[in-house]
């Protein structure tokens, strides 16, 4: 099995989705899972992309047996390092009359295409170069010095093939596809077939957008005398409007988005599995190992699953609540480090604060990112603590001044600085003393101390923050309220 991403930008969620299904089957069958980097399109190549693919797949626990960073019996696993092998196969196809050189310039091809479109003809290469030597072709217009190699699609190519999950499919007749580009590098179609064969891939599992390419690949397998692999074309992930998930339209097309938002890898794996797979008992919450245990291609959907982020948030909340406090605190800490609320290497004290605060927030979070807003007030250095401007404007008004003043007095006098005593002191001072409704009494305290109108439970939060910092913030709040 293999996943074969192209490093053309930060990793697409589809790469994780394909990796998951390939890996589940490989694990169930005791097979090998290869990560191959398809980097022959140098115009679209993005340098950091490969490392990001490694990082995000590792983060999801979707590890490979062979790959560029691991080596393996079929190394190298980057197509840009395998040029030699493609060339010899192209030479053979040329010698056998299955391929030909094409010297048509890009301008000529563009013009040809335009004319075909205008005349409402099917678009495709018009074979001007077929049967011509370089010299003969050079006499004609639209000649380019560096040729490409194209496949010579026969009149009656094999168009139907068996897809493991879809049964027999028939794809449209292919054009004379370019196999080797003018820069000497192979196109996806050639490199993909050669590598799948040479790396011993038995099942090609990829997105349904490749169905129309499969007839080209079948021709190559047949011409080169190679056994065809089994094909599985997975349904594409779709936006709620049913369009294909793309980075332009949907931030969730970027795998790193899930890290940034603070989804748990096990929740995302479960979610991606659910998009294409159902468990025999209909259970929606299941692990990678559960999927491996029940895996059956017959249980894979063929209908484009809608990428429902509400469902993912629900799943994530479920997984968050399954974690022990220690585990969740560790993940919140890592998330806060990644997002810059905590330093890259948090101190023991910062770790302890997160651990102590975790029980206050674990029931309230769907994604770890929410911890940034909920716990920031405990973790940022006092000099960078800031009130939310909107919340301060709404709550820290002149009416709040007496409330904050009474709170300072009451809390300064609390004997033991712990939740019950803090709560009692504030209730006595504000609810009984000032005759306020609890909601109105505590809102100014909350905004002054946590910076926001929505926070973890107030009295516990004050205990964690400590008396001095609490009083300091209440006094600052009082000043803002004009008191
Ligand atoms: N490089 C292709 C991609 O990025 C791989 C398609 C395939 O799996 O054959 O989608």
What does this 3D model show about the protein?
- By secondary structure, this protein is mainly alpha-helical.
- Helix content is 47%, strand content 8%.
- It has helices spanning 13-29, 49-59, 83-95, 106-118, 134-138, 188-198, 214-223, 255-261, 265-276, 288-294, 309-322, 325-338, 348-361, 370-379, 389-395, 400-413, 419-433, 438-450, 458-465, 467-480; strands spanning 2-3, 34-35, 99-104, 143-151, 160-163, 167-170, 178-180, 203-207, 230-234.
- The chain has a three-stranded antiparallel sheet.
- 35% of the residues are buried.
- The mean pLDDT is 96.
- The structure holds glutamic acid.
- Residues 4-6, 38, 188, 192, 206, 210 line the site of glutamic acid (GLU).
- Residues 4-6, 38, 188, 192, 206, 210 line the site of glutamic acid.
Describe the SSE topology:
Layout: E1 2-3, H1 13-29, E2 34-35, H2 49-59, H3 83-95, E3 99-104, H4 106-118, H5 134-138, E4 143-151, E5 160-163, E6 167-170, E7 178-180, H6 188-198, E8 203-207, H7 214-223, E9 230-234, H8 255-261, H9 265-276, H10 288-294, H11 309-322, H12 325-338, H13 348-361, H14 370-379, H15 389-395, H16 400-413, H17 419-433, H18 438-450, H19 458-465, H20 467-480
Parallel strand pairs: 1-2, 8-9
Antiparallel strand pairs: 3-4, 4-7, 5-6
Bound molecules: glutamic acid.
